[in-house]
Write a structure and sequence with these properties.
alpha/beta; 6-stranded mixed β-sheet
Amino acid sequence: MAVPIKIFCLSDSHGDIPTTTGGMTWDACLHAGDFCSAAMRGGVGRKLGQFKRWADNFGPPVLAVRGNHDAGAGLQVLATSIKDVTGEIVQVTPSLLVAGLGWTGANFFDLPGEAELQAACNALFDKAQPMILPGNSFVLLTHYPGDFGGLFPFTGDRTGFVFKCVRDLTERLRPLVVIQGHVHGHFMSQGTYEWSLGSTLVVNPGPDGGTLLVNVEEKTVSFVMWT
């Protein structure tokens, strides 16, 4: 039986560091964006230093996508400590690929519209398409959540918070799992999104994060939250 790939996943840490990583060893780390905060965009502060040290000492590279907070001085300093995979397809193992979806505006309060994120989804799928092969599996790492219907209830204006284009990308890419962030009310939530041709696990790990276990041979995944 194949040993599962062990991946630490988190989101929306805003310069804070996870309360624990369980004293475990990991094969990778995935951060679903907003690793900076608004204050860090304007300068280098205590939070930035502590997060940089955590990322430097984590072990495997910290792969991250950009959220609305991730620009300016904070991102420049963290560029040596994390690998920005926004708009990229990155191998974790020869048969496990991470597709990174993110977006950052001029101000931390700027949020993408559906059309802006649709363009990013299309470009990412174009990069991924040649690698959609029977032996490969994908993780979709996105700061911005898909509009997965009733899977994660959301009240109020959905503009800038949940996106149909991310749901559509999920159905086209067919990842084993979607790791997403952005909506703080959905931290530590997970569920299975099902559509006519398949299903995928969807997780919002939040800043404390959790463990993603991937069996690439059997194409199965599970996620355990840290509490």
